[in-house]
Amino acid sequence: QIWGGENLEMSFRVWQCGGRIEIHPCSHVGHIFRDFHPYSFNGIDSYGHNTLRAVHVWMDEFARYFLMLHPELHDRKYGDISSRLELRKQLKCKSFKWYLDHVYDKRKFVYDKNVLAYGWVKNKASDLCIDVLNRQETSDLPAGLYTCEHMNHPLEAITNQLFSYSRHREIRREEGCLTISDEKAEPKAEDDDIDHLSYAKTINSAASGTSVFHKVLLSPCEEPDYVSDSDHETSLTKFKEQIWRHESVHPRSNPNRLIVSESTGECLTTSGAHGNTDLLATKCDKSDPRQYW
């Protein structure tokens, strides 16, 4: 209808049905945006409607990931697509998984595919979860802590607290990974919703030098295998800063686990933290429940 989504539909159709898309370096294409639409949308979300049709025709079981990002479209009617599905059958088009494996070069990260775990990363002692706090996941800004969401709902929407533990042992989003930094920090009290005794002990130990805290950042996930030779060593170093071990406190007597940086040996902590606080790492303490995840 009217406008929107045709770029996705045409691309999926061309690739999956045996065509190809070529880049012509000498071509010049102009696209001028008008100050007004020369046509009416008649109150219709045509972009959502058209994109939803393309998703259900071409994306197979991967359609649910689109709907997780756009839950407002979950129950939206999108009309009859039987003729498009029949066209796909007649042309013997490939699956969307084939598209991801061959056109996308197997680098597309899907939060619940080929991972060790996914869901919420929770510290029981504080009832806080790791949270992006509405920050861009590749911004190099600190990750955060926030009161955990209700965990009795199915994972049918992308939230600020949904993370994956990859086979490389990254704690990551689609493009951003938790990254230990060398930037020192002190826990901050910003409101009354805080364990004041814990906070006082934390600040005193930080001031005395017995505890050092480092910020944990939301940074672009490193891919050392896909960078130039000149950048390979730098990428490997950054990659190690994004590796975390989920380590038992004591395999037999204590079921709790620490999250330990492969790079520094420090542990994630909620020490002195409350809702809407930056995520920090400090020296591991197996007796501290604020480091249990």
From TrEMBL:
Q: Which GO terms describe its molecular function?
A: carbohydrate binding; polypeptide N-acetylgalactosaminyltransferase activity
Q: Name one Pfam family in it.
A: Ricin_B_lectin
Q: Which residues form the Ricin B lectin domain?
A: 118-183
Q: Which GO terms describe its cellular component?
A: Golgi apparatus
Asked if the Swiss-Prot or TrEMBL record annotates the protein with the keyword Disulfide bond, the reply is: yes
Q: Which UniProt keywords apply?
A: Disulfide bond, Lectin, Transferase
Gene Ontology annotations of biological process type: protein O-linked glycosylation
Q: Which InterPro entries match?
A: Nucleotide-diphossugar_trans, Ricin_B-like_lectins, Ricin_B_lectin
SUPFAM superfamilies xrefs: Nucleotide-diphospho-sugar transferases, Ricin B-like lectins
Stored PANTHER family: N-ACETYLGALACTOSAMINYLTRANSFERASE, RICIN B LECTIN DOMAIN-CONTAINING PROTEIN
| Name the record gives this protein | Polypeptide N-acetylgalactosaminyltransferase 1
Q: Which organism is it from?
A: Aceria tosichella
Organism placement in taxonomy: Eukaryota, Metazoa, Ecdysozoa, Arthropoda, Chelicerata
